TrEMBL record:
Name this polypeptide is given: UDP-2,3-diacylglucosamine pyrophosphatase LpxH
Keywords of the record: Cell inner membrane, Cell membrane, Manganese, Membrane, Metal-binding
Superkingdom, taxonomy of origin: Bacteria
Calcineurin-like phosphoesterase domain segment(s): 10-210
A Pfam short name: Metallophos
Gene3D superfamilies documented for this protein: 3.60.21.10
Amino acid sequence: MTDMMEPRRFRTLFISDVHLGSKAAKADFLLDFLRYHEADTIYLVGDIVDGWRLKRSWYWPQVCNDVVQKLLRKARKGTRVVYIPGNHDEFLRAFPGMHFGGIEVVERIIHDGADGKKYLILHGDEFDVVVRNARLLAYLGDWAYDTAIRINIVLAAVRRHLGMPYWSFSAWAKLQVKHAVNFIGEFQRVVAEEARKSGADGVICGHIHHAVIEDMDGIRYINTGDWVESCTAIVEHEDGTFELITWRALTSNVPALTSIELLEEGELAPQAA
């Protein structure tokens, strides 16, 4: 690993589910990521700010301001920044078409890929039956996820002390529950079908914190993941191929020294298409 990293430039960058305002948000990782990644267009695919948690208790450290300022600075320097609100930052849905410091707010949008294909971009919560039809249940689920994250922090410290590799209790618990009801597969199918109805070749969304690039009956389904656990983003190269990447800090005291790891069937190898 060298002391300096050259910034990487892409045609498009897609980020979602940062949850700024939540103690679980890895805002420092995202800030570091944004320092070393440039793009002509950045899509913020919902839940960038966690309004639900901020309503319960205010938590907004300086690093949250730094992330916002970094995005605003990119917009001032010519990057097109488009914000598609999610359910946690739904307060922004009252301002479709508005610009805030150069950041454009839209409910959903069609992205024209470099290869001529069209991609529907939306957060995806409108297809989550729990969020759409039972808001109280959704809030309870959000609380349960917070609790799992806190358990995760304790377990991670213990495993680190014992020299054991990182293992995410919260991710495991989430997947066990959602697999039990086949939630992820059904969500992907419904969102892909919405792209088909919109005349798009693919869909790019967030919401379920499950990063993946895959084809579903002729529709390219892309989920950006999150910046709570996986710290993943989607990038589009100049030739129209998409890549799913994750950003991990190598040291806690030197946040700029980080590495890119391409996800595999879980962790390490490229998923480009």
